[in-house]
Amino acid sequence: MPTTRHRRILALGTLAAAALIAGCSTTSLDEAPVESRTPTPADATPGAAGSTAGSSGAPQTGVATVDLTKGQAGSADAAALAQRVVYFDFDSFVIKDEYRPMLEAHAKALSANRNKRMAIEGHTDERGGREYNLALGQKRAQAVARSLVLLGVTEVQVEAVSFGEERPADPGHDEAAWAKNRRAELKDK
Questions:
Q1: What local confidence, expressed as pLDDT, does residue 89 receive?
Q2: CA atoms lying within 13 Å on the CB side of residue 38
Q3: How far apart are CA 142 and CA 118, in angstroms?
Q4: Which ranges in the chain belong to alpha helices (H)?
Q5: pTM for the model
Q6: Cα gap 126→105, rounded to integer Å
Q7: Which of 123, 182, 121, 120 is nearest to 145 (CA)?
Q8: How confident is the model at residue 129 (pLDDT cuts 50, 70, 90)?
Q9: Which helix (H) or strand (E) holds 162?
Q10: CA dihedral of residues 79, 84, 89, 91 (deg, nearest 10)
Q11: I want to staple 145 with a disulfide (CB 3.0 to 4.6 A). Which of 21, 42, 140, 158 is the partner?
Q12: Pairing state of beta strands 183-188 and 118-123?
């Protein structure tokens, strides 16, 4: 029968083995260079960068607030809803600021109709291995879905799927074609 000391040694050995296995389970996608951006408040004014508290005295989080009621009847919303593609930089799943109005308009439309569903399809260019591109396409689709959820859409309304390099928008083999293929498409279900 094992003693208390033996049980402790066995438990420590098990924990060490688990830590070793967990440390060896990274994929090359996790190590891929990804653009990083520092968030700035939407209402940031020049000279206020050193400010740590808003007018209410509460600390600022650096997260921009979004007013979903702004532009209710504007044609800007209609134009933004007509857009359904988010393009990405090479080897990145960071959503660029230029797509914010489009995502806000889609979030507003989905929030107004909770029965509406949307699929977000992630795509990549042909460079990279099949498994890598499927994972990168999934991360792109999930980034768009996560943005919509942060803007008020329920998680059951959006589904992220990846097609990797399998459905190119442009079959060419140059940078212009690859730029069109690095995308996430918003599709109504």
A1: 96
A2: 1
A3: 12
A4: 4-23, 75-82, 100-112, 130-150, 175-181
A5: 0.61
A6: 31
A7: 120
A8: very high
A9: strand 158-164
A10: 170
A11: 158
A12: antiparallel
